[in-house]
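RETRY 2/3 - previous attempt timed out on the joint model. Re-submitting the same 1626-residue input unchanged.
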Amino acid sequence: MSISIIQAILIGLVYYLGINGTPWTTLLGSTILQKPLVAGVIVGFILGDPVQGAIIGAAIQLPFIAYISAGGAPPTDPGLAGTLGTALAMAAGVKPEAAIAMAVPIGLLGTIIWVLHMTIDVFFVHAIDRAADEGNMKKAVFYHVAMPQIVTLLLGAIPVALGCYFGSGVVTNIIELLQGRPLQTLEVIGGLLPAIGIAMNLRAISKPGILMWYVLGFILAVYLGLQTMPIAIIAGIVAYLYTDLIAKTEEKTVALDSSEDLDDDFI
Amino acid sequence: MSISIIQAILIGLVYYLGINGTPWTTLLGSTILQKPLVAGVIVGFILGDPVQGAIIGAAIQLPFIAYISAGGAPPTDPGLAGTLGTALAMAAGVKPEAAIAMAVPIGLLGTIIWVLHMTIDVFFVHAIDRAADEGNMKKAVFYHVAMPQIVTLLLGAIPVALGCYFGSGVVTNIIELLQGRPLQTLEVIGGLLPAIGIAMNLRAISKPGILMWYVLGFILAVYLGLQTMPIAIIAGIVAYLYTDLIAKTEEKTVALDSSEDLDDDFI
Amino acid sequence: MSISIIQAILIGLVYYLGINGTPWTTLLGSTILQKPLVAGVIVGFILGDPVQGAIIGAAIQLPFIAYISAGGAPPTDPGLAGTLGTALAMAAGVKPEAAIAMAVPIGLLGTIIWVLHMTIDVFFVHAIDRAADEGNMKKAVFYHVAMPQIVTLLLGAIPVALGCYFGSGVVTNIIELLQGRPLQTLEVIGGLLPAIGIAMNLRAISKPGILMWYVLGFILAVYLGLQTMPIAIIAGIVAYLYTDLIAKTEEKTVALDSSEDLDDDFI
Amino acid sequence: MEEQRVKLSKKDVLRAFWKWTFFSHSNYNYERLQASGVLQSMSHIPEKLYPGDKEEQKKFMQRHMSFYNTEPHFGGIINGMVLAMEEERANGASIDDDAINSIKTGLMGPIAGIGDTLWQGTLQPIALAVGISIAAGGNVIGALVFALIMIGVMLPIGYFMYMKGYTTGKTGVEAILSGGKMKQIIQAASIMGATVLGSLTANYVTAKSTMNISVGSSTLALQTDILDKLLLGGVPLGITLLTLYLLKNKKMKSTTVMLILVIIGLICGATGILG
Amino acid sequence: MEEQRVKLSKKDVLRAFWKWTFFSHSNYNYERLQASGVLQSMSHIPEKLYPGDKEEQKKFMQRHMSFYNTEPHFGGIINGMVLAMEEERANGASIDDDAINSIKTGLMGPIAGIGDTLWQGTLQPIALAVGISIAAGGNVIGALVFALIMIGVMLPIGYFMYMKGYTTGKTGVEAILSGGKMKQIIQAASIMGATVLGSLTANYVTAKSTMNISVGSSTLALQTDILDKLLLGGVPLGITLLTLYLLKNKKMKSTTVMLILVIIGLICGATGILG
Amino acid sequence: MEEQRVKLSKKDVLRAFWKWTFFSHSNYNYERLQASGVLQSMSHIPEKLYPGDKEEQKKFMQRHMSFYNTEPHFGGIINGMVLAMEEERANGASIDDDAINSIKTGLMGPIAGIGDTLWQGTLQPIALAVGISIAAGGNVIGALVFALIMIGVMLPIGYFMYMKGYTTGKTGVEAILSGGKMKQIIQAASIMGATVLGSLTANYVTAKSTMNISVGSSTLALQTDILDKLLLGGVPLGITLLTLYLLKNKKMKSTTVMLILVIIGLICGATGILG
Ligand SMILES: OC[C@H]1O[C@H](O)[C@@H](O)[C@@H](O)[C@@H]1O
Ligand SMILES: OC[C@H]1O[C@H](O)[C@@H](O)[C@@H](O)[C@@H]1O
Ligand SMILES: OC[C@H]1O[C@H](O)[C@@H](O)[C@@H](O)[C@@H]1O
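RETRY 2/3 succeeded.
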């Protein structure tokens, strides 16, 4: 399958819209489009096969399933993996497992785009500072809303469109070359990568003892074959009951402490 | 299959014996006979096919599985559904699913019998009042034990016997007419009805937070395929351990409170 | 299969090495060799078929799975069951289930050897007492390390070797005779016997309420088909969280008590 | 201490227990519910406590015709207690009609709540589920197993409660009821009951959609392709929670709610949304 | 009490909420992150609070260009609060620049932590898992279901938080944050999140050995004959815990850790240890 | 402070640990159990502490021939402690024979209880279950896996305990033992152990009825049609609880109970009730 110029540009647009901060309900809209699960279907639609897009997108989503982007520098870009990755995988006609292996390095490239726009946007902040000194709100709004979008659009959509248009042939050849053990090795790597997102996420919520719950979730899923939704519900209920008990114990201490304060006051 | 007069009368008797308050070990005996699960087998036995009776009775039991009768006016009468319902279903030779759909409206009719005997029995209470004023214990006992039973027997056994004898033909015809989508719709309704008993029961035991345990039981049953018995045992143990922890926390407060009282006394 | 003299002696040696207190890392080494699971493979190896030894040994291990030897008199000897039992079962070519039934009475015989060496060793203690009175450490060490081992070696290895050499024919004949219901009955008995080890173990850790956890483990294993390892992990985590909550409640009491002591001091 | 003139024999108490067990609801009625059941269960008592004293016997009878309604097995503890109070009263203790009556009316409600939760709310659905699972395949033993579980558990409880009430008397029973242990048992039983009701919902409320959705050329089964991925059994769960909401928060009568369910079933069944 | 001169209408607050919701990250940058997002979300406010007063309007603009970064949905509570403070200030309350600024910098961190845990750490992986399970078989609805779950949960939260912040004001928000209930919610969400991450590890991290071991004549499959008996999925679990260890205890950058995993995968894949 | 004259080297302590580990039960006997094991483990110590002083060396030997029995791995903490006390004593501290002896007899019981629970009661059955599951199919690695788990866990524990005892000394060990943490560990281990024993009962105690019941024309299999519906595995559970009852409440000897089980098995097996 080859990708036409129009298709390549549309896919570039999808990538742009999935960058944090495009004027969708920021983060809610853009992070949804950023997901390979979602972008995959749309790319598939653009390429004329939404069903295949859904399958490839769902596969590419896997290594990013627990990806968490908090503040600073993201380690990889699910948005690029989901758009360019899906497009090239569909063009090369590879299996979902191979699509994962292709999408992961593509995701890493995406961080370049992130660094660029996060740097260029600094200029606009300074422009807004000046607008503030002038008390010119219109100008401030213009520099916040319009300018960065143009930059991000150029920085995002163009490389992706080019990648789609010129990349598909190259990638098909590469995939050809990798048949057999090399591709299998890429699949092994693809199987390990979700560990990063999960571990980063775990680090973010890490508290003493939290690993026990993690292992519990793991054991329940492995040995009982439970999917994520029932485990989430069970865990939510048990967590509530458990923390409620802890809160009950601590209430007592607070009650105790305050009553002692009272004693002190009386003496 | 047609139902003979003798059979109809015997089934009427079974219904009578399942009305709360017949001189069986009240509630224990009568509520057992009242269950379609039990009445079904007996009706089947009377009609010459206990095995089919067991199957139909177990099916009709379903919408009444969590039925709870506390004090006031019951919303439906499992006793009538289990006796008349089983008899007519067997006579019409329908599948268990259709038997449920037939039994449910029959159950609703039963509340009429309940209202009647609960009203008529008021006369006997007044008669016992008079006996008390006379200090006549024999008469009081007679009005408590014998009279209401005669009334209940007539109110209960006769309509059921008539229903069995004359109803079977009618019901067979109706069932004939309902084949296809209508019967399927009745089955849909039958599938929803256990929700009532369950919800009434939940309302009766409702406390803050209790719904979480309900959902937990639901998830465990749905996703792990656990039957009621293992869930009951697991829930019993976990509930004990959980409430024990709560009790331990509260003990402390009590201990704390009382020790503070002590302090007050000393000062 | 017949057992040669050399093989019989080697098996006797394996038994000796599995008696508590042989100069292996005591208890750690000897109790490992004492297990039919381990001894079975070694005996199989000696008899030229380690795979069959593993199968028979694993089976004979079953009735001893929760066997606990604490201090006093052991009720049975897994070591003898695992060595002589495996050897005779392999010689007779019986199925694993029948091997269990054979090994259990053999295990009971082993307690005789235990009683003998525990009694004879008393002499050496007295000898060491005398060495202590003389301040002769060399002699003390000799009586502790060397002498009891010679006795245990003779008491243990000789009967086992004889049993292996002469027993195999006898046992094969007996097994022949027991075909059918008798052997089946032996298998029934074999199925009941693990209850002893489990119950002794439960008795050892018995605390109020502990049986609830036992039943919980049972239900989880029976209804969810969980193996021992996942149950152990789940139980370990839940037990930690549960006891931690209890500890939290009790801390409060301690905190309370001590703070009250403080109050007393101040007044 | 005053010497005791009349004493109920073990047999007297037992007879009262059995009569209560057999006839408590014999004359169940809208006006005073189990009132005459209480009286009849003690019909042999007045002659024992006030032999020949017609006046006191008459008063006894009148005393026990007041409104009464409780769960008979657990509530037996009240009946037993009342019997003990009557005995003391006959022996001169100053227990007036009010005292006995207020004990009855004060305790019958809470104990009915406890008893209904433990019995109808927890034990009975479990025993029914077991019985159904045996009987559904055509096994006539299912009904018997259900009956034996119920009788085997409830009769001993009824006996124990009645005797406990008689031997502990008024203060004892109040101590039991206000103690933390009782609170914990109710709490635990509620939790167990709710969990069991959850499993009953999963096993016995059925509602599956048979609708298909066409997206372009492919067809999706609403139930298996979407709803089941979201939450297995989500529809039955939702319907039961809706029912609870109507009953509890909207305070609808159960017959009204049943009608609503029937209408929902009619519409969804006829249109093929459910089926 | 002083009479209130200027008052923001419900519509003013709503506009600020929506602008924040749409444009918070529009000019996201390394120097001050969401700074100009805060200003732009309130671009219609200065003219309302200080009609015609150019000087105060300028000060307002300068005030809100300071470094700001939080999770936008939960963090809206801060923005709402700031709006309320600005309103009070315009009405003469003695709230100086420092007060407003320190509220923003003091709360943005903790609330980002809470928000990210609840949103990205807990809700999002669950919704993704549901979406993937639908989509993996070629069902285009999967993406939609994911999107609807996210929007359906997060938009109401964002709205509620912003309005809560505006109506409760400074002291109210601090009370909420320091209360035991908030602590419990975070704790419970962390536990739930960790458990869900465990199930994700089980379902999505894959590493199976294809090695065989020969013992004498028989051949053992390392994975099915030994490792699976020890602990099902032990290898993926171990790899994830190793990753966590490198990230958390060794404080490695996530890209470094990714490189390490790639190398492990390369070696194990090429040698056939995993495959 | 007095200057220290003799000091045990790290190597002395290590030798004592290894001798204890290898030979503790070498001369296990009915009269004094591990008594001479304690002495022999420290056979190189007297010459070190009292070089040339025959009298003190003799006393040392006599001192350590008293009754001793504990779980060797966990109990090493006592041995280590005793070694430290002997060293202090040789350096003039006023520690008499009684002090050392009472420490040994006072602690050996509780620590044996703890150790046996953790080791034989919890770890060993789990490791055996893993080993059996591997070996039952004819895999010779099962035994090795079991051995490695046991050694890998127990040897480090033994080493840690001995060294802990030596370095912390008397007061330290008592503090550890009376601390809440130790209590919690035992409690948690008991709970884990009991749960594991439950799963062992389910997996390894087998008792199935082969009886059929005829009701009219139909035949019911007692096991699958009735018992399994009531409670899967109810018979093995009941038998194990009966065994526990006989052992614990009836205080029967384990051999008696074994005999009873054999008789039950004989009767039920011969009559075909079980089979
Ligand atoms: O960490 C707070 C916040 O930081 C950035 O704004 C983004 O990465 C958000 O997704 C995140 O919630
Ligand atoms: O609610 C108390 C009591 O009321 C009535 O007597 C009956 O419905 C009983 O089943 C119930 O236990
Ligand atoms: O009970 C303490 C201890 O006693 C004996 O030494 C042996 O049975 C050991 O296995 C056990 O640990």
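The beta strands of chain E are 212-215, 218-221. Closing ticket.
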